[in-house]
Structure formats: C-alpha cells, structure tokens
Amino acid sequence: MQGEHLEQFLTPEEVAGRLVVPRKTVLDWLRTGALKGVKAGRLWRIREPDVLAFLREPERPEETRP
Fold first, then answer.
1. CA 47 to CA 54: how far, in whole Å?
2. 10 SS3 class
3. CA 45, CA 9: separation in Å to the nearest integer?
4. For 39-50, how does the pLDDT look when each residue is reduced to its tens digit (9 = 90+)?
5. Angle 25-53-10 from CA coordinates, rounded to 5°
6. Which of 5, 13, 24, 62 reaches 20 to 30 Å from 31, CA-CA?
7. Which backbone phi and psi does 48 adopt, to 5 degrees?
8. What is the DSSP string of 33-58?
9. What's the half-sphere exposure (Cβ side, CA atoms, 13 Å) at 56?
10. What is the pTM of this model?
C-alpha cells in the first residue's frame, strides 16, 4: 500500500469544533445538502475538501434572513 493515500473523513462533531458551531447545525447542513457528506447507516462523515468548499460558498439570500 505504499504510495496510496487514504482519504480522511471528519465526524460532524469534529466539523462543529473546527467551525465553532453546534453539532446540530452541522447535521442540519448535511441533511439539507448545504454541506456534502457521506452517510453510513446513521453516521455522517465529511471529507475535509468538502468542508473547505462549503466555507468558500457565498451565502444564499434565504440563509441570511433572520
């Protein structure tokens, strides 16, 4: 397996910690598709590049309303 790169996945808890938001917020983003993730049974996993892409996305007008 030399030279192979295994992609690492983050848990919703890890993403929440990095973005300083509640875990529920990350789960909401995953459920609505705002944040890409992979669901295995009841567990969500998120690739780091998908977190970075999410952060680069401009805010949508409906998400900025009070």
1. 11
2. strand
3. 6
4. 999 999 999 999
5. 55
6. 5
7. -60, -40
8. TSS--EEETTEEEEEHHHHHHHHHSP
9. 6
10. 0.77
